[in-house]
Specification:
Shape: elongated
Number of helices: 26
Largest sheet: 8 strands, mixed, barrel
Strand content: 15-25%
Helix content: 40-55%
Structural class: alpha+beta
Distance between the termini: 95 Å
Mean pLDDT: 82
Radius of gyration: 61 Å
Length: 796
């Protein structure tokens, strides 16, 4: 059942509760009545048994008294002595009628019946009386219940003495309906006397029950009975009776019981009126409760309905309607809370609206607001046939700068950049916006692409002036993309997208500012395709390991090699790392490439060691910034070395200064762990990074590599020579070895050796070669290089 209103739900719930409670109460009362009625019947049955035994005792006393009076009568004894049968019969009849006994008999001392009186006196069952006489002789008298001619009798036997025993007087009552009715009148219980013979079937002619009920009783009686009295419930004429079975006697195959009974339904009859009244009260209570719950639910739901209408107005954006609240209960509290919520939502919506269109840090329009402004400017430009341009600017190295000076100082830097842009663009009514991070955009109304490019160059000059943040002077540069309406796009989103493409092109080309060109779209699509193919290249093993030897400049000995990578593209052929490593870093695949390189170098060194029975040359592997922030990197390297049975000195790791600057703290933690493992670490491309010396002193490195940009032109540029000399001196003063890249001829080798440079590599020594060719090259180098012959002989 479904209810669409709270009023109906409240009424239904409370009505259900009261009915459930009343039903549970009714069941509990009914159970209690039944339990108490049965307990009361059991008590009545126990009392009835006591009364039954008392009644038998009274009958026995009456019989015994009358028999003793007769036995002690002088005339009766004389008649017995003289064998005056008529006098004996007269005396027996007189005493039998006086107490309404059913049997009065006299037996001589030999156990022979002499005389009898009473309509029930018979001779067929003298055998049972003889047994009774035997009991009397041993006990002095006897009092028992026996069955004579299928009828139960209570008999007493009293001796006649003159002065010795000269005979026996036997008197008895029949146990019949009279006794049953007397017991019923005393106990209010139904009484039945049942006899069972050797045929093991109960029968009875004596009962206060009707004939059919008595028949049901005999059929429902249990065959086996306990020695003591027992309580049970017996079905009689489709009615349950609480019953107590009282054992009277059991002689051989014959037994007799008295069954005392009380109808349970009759016992509970007085309580049925109470149950009916309770049912009437339940119905009346439910009716009253329904009326009361309807009134109560109306008082609850009516104010809630009014509050719901107010909430609907809030949903529609109407925050002016105030809910009138006069109540002081919980509903009144709800109304007041709704008013407070209305005020708070109005304030927050104003704030959200501002956040939706304004940058909270710089108080500049954000991307959504800027797009709306572009769309509006395009609509105006369509009417006036005047162009407009958009600049998108992204700062260079801002992430590294932010990590060095801290994020809070980075926010201050962005605010100062925004202030500088607003101050210089305000006079020309340009719109400056911030898209998030370090990306800004400027809308230039009535401006062509060429004029916008000049504005972009002036902005780049504007940024060249250092900005002071927390007593630090920070130099900035940026890349700016330019797109113009209607030349490059006719919608706001497309115009902004193409300005961003031009900005990304400045990053890869190194140009400070560029106007959008259609080739940028192609380049962007190619980049996406390239990144996807690169992922597949790692998974399908299209990469190849190349090695470039490193030698000792003083001896010419080969001290190791640098691991390089090539991509055997299925369609484009061999691709050099400069063409795909940047895409790997941007797409997040650089970690997979690094792991491939580490695994391939470990495999190569393991096979070299197994084949030559000598340690493989130390191979240097480049790590990226993403590798250095991977806290599992040391474990991965250790697993590869162990799997190929290599020592931790078999490889060295080269890192760039820029990779450290991305996350200096985590990178330094990783480098310390690698150094503790015994791995040699080297700074690659030294001198081209940011804030080199501030971190060099804290890094656990053992080698510096001078970037080839300084080595290639050292024959023609004394400044490069001075830089190399200073770098060599710095490295040696710090206890580091120095490696020079880009050795192209013997003169450069000699010059570097003269400057004290320790090791070198370059095309003069060898170009990078496939790893499987390194062994042959090493033999050739050792054989032709005089300085290496002796060492090679020792190795062999």
């Amino acid at each position: 059942m479904q209810f669409n209103s709270l009023k109906k739900r409240i009424t239904f719930v409370f009505l259900t509760l009261i009915l459930v409670i009343q039903f549970i109460g009714f069941i509990a009362i009914r159970h209690s009545i039944g339990t108490n009625a049965r307990a009361s019947i059991n008590e009545q049955l126990q009392v009835g048994e006591q009364i039954f035994h008392n009644l038998l005792d009274q009958n026995a006393e009456s019989l015994s008294l009358s028999a003793r009076i007769l036995a002690s009568d002088y005339g009766f004894r004389q008649a017995v002595s003289s064998k005056d049968i008529e006098t004996i019969n007269s005396a027996l009849a007189n005493h039998q009628s006086r107490i309404n006994a059913n049997i009065a008999m006299f037996f001589n001392n030999d156990g022979e019946q002499v005389a009898s009186a009473g309509e029930d006196a018979m001779n067929e069952d003298n055998s049972k009386i003889s047994q009774l006489l035997m009991n009397a002789r041993s006990q002095g008298d006897a009092n028992e219940i026996v069955v004579l001619n299928n009828r139960p009798y209570q008999l007493v036997v009293v001796p006649v003495k003159a002065p010795v025993v000269i005979g026996w007087v036997v008197m008895g009552f029949v146990i019949d309906n009279n006794l049953a009715m007397r017991l019923r009148n005393l106990t209010l219980l139904d009484v039945s006397f049942l006899i069972k013979d050797k045929d093991d079937v109960w029968r009875s002619e004596t009962s206060t029950l009707g004939r059919s009920s008595l028949l049901d009783l005999t059929q429902s009686m249990p065959r086996a009975l306990p020695s003591n009295s027992m309580n049970t419930e017996i079905e009689v004429s489709e009615s349950t009776y609480g019953s107590r079975i009282v054992n009277i006697f059991a002689h051989g195959d014959q037994s007799m019981v008295a069954v005392l009974q009380r109808s349970i339904s009759e016992a509970t009859e007085p309580y049925r009126a109470l149950q009916f009244k309770l049912l009437i009260l339940t119905i009346l209570g439910a009716i009253v409760f329904v009326i009361g719950s309807l009134i109560t639910s109306k008082r609850i739901t009516q104010p809630l309905t009014e509050l719901a209408k107010s909430a609907e107005k809030l949903e529609q954006g109407d925050y002016s309607t105030v809910v009138e609240v006069k109540r002081k209960d919980e509903i009144g509290n709800l109304g007041r809370a709704l008013n407070r919520m209305r005020e708070a939502i109005a304030i927050r919506e104003q704030h959200i609206t501002k956040l939706a269109y304004w940058d909270e840090l710089t108080d500049l329009p954000n991307r959504a607001s800027f797009i709306q402004s572009i769309a509006q400017a395009i609509a105006e430009g369509a009417n006036t046939n005047k162009p407009l341009s958009v600049l998108v600017m992204d700062l260079n190295r801002f992430k590294q700068i932010n990590n060095v000076i801290g994020h809070r100082a980075g926010d201050q830097l962005l605010k100062k950049i925004a202030e500088r842009l607003k101050a210089n663009m305000h006079a020309t009514h340009y719109l400056v916006a911030r898209f998030g991070g370090d990306e800004f955009s400027i809308l230039l109304p009535n401006t062509s692409a060429e004029a916008a490019l000049e504005t972009a160059k002036s902005i780049l000059q504007l940024l060249e002036k250092p900005i002071e943040v927390n007593d630090q002077s920070i130099d900035l540069s940026a890349g700016i993309g330019v797109a113009s309406y209607p030349e490059h796009a006719d919608t706001a989103e497309l115009l902004l997208s193409r300005a961003e493409m031009a900005m990304y092109a400045t990053k890869s080309s190194g140009a400070g500012a560029l106007i959008y060109d259609s080739n940028h779209d192609v380049s962007s699509q190619q980049s996406l395709t390239f990144a996807s193919e690169l992922k597949s290249a790692v998974e399908t093993n299209q990469l190849a390991l190349y090695l470039q030897p490193k030698i000792d400049l003083g001896t010419g000995h080969v001290i190791g090699a640098e691991a390089l990578i090539r991509w055997n593209h299925p369609q484009k052929g061999l691709i050099y790392p400069d063409s795909f490593i940047p895409f790997a870093e941007q797409s997040g695949n650089i970690n997979k490439i690094s792991m491939w390189m580490l695994a391939e170098v470990a495999r190569f060194s393991g096979e070299w060691q197994h084949e030559h029975h000598l340690p493989a040359p130390v191979i240097a592997i480049n790590l990226s910034a993403r590798d250095l922030v991977d806290h599992l990197l040391p474990n991965k390297i250790q697993e590869m070395l162990t799997a190929n049975k290599l020592s931790n000195h078999a490889i060295s790791l080269e890192i760039t200064e820029s990779s450290i600057m991305d996350d200096p703290k985590r990178a330094l933690n990783t480098l310390n762990v690698l150094s503790d493992m015994g791995l040699k670490l080297s700074i690659d491309d030294f001198g081209t990074g940011y804030s080199s010396l501030s971190y060099l002193k804290n890094l656990p490195v053992s080698e510096l590599k001078i970037d080839k940009s300084f080595v290639l032109n050292m024959e023609n540029d004394k400044a490069d020579v001075n830089i190399i000399r200073s770098t060599v001196d710095l490295g040696h003063n710090l206890g580091l070895k120095v490696v020079a890249e880009g050795i192209e001829n013997q003169n450069v080798w000699t010059a570097l050796e003269g400057l004290g440079c320790d090791f070198g590599q370059g095309y003069f020594i060898s170009k990078p070669m496939p790893a499987d060719q390194f062994g042959k090259w090493l033999e050739s180098w050792t054989a032709t290089n005089k300085k290496s012959k002796d060492l090679y002989k020792k190795m062999k």
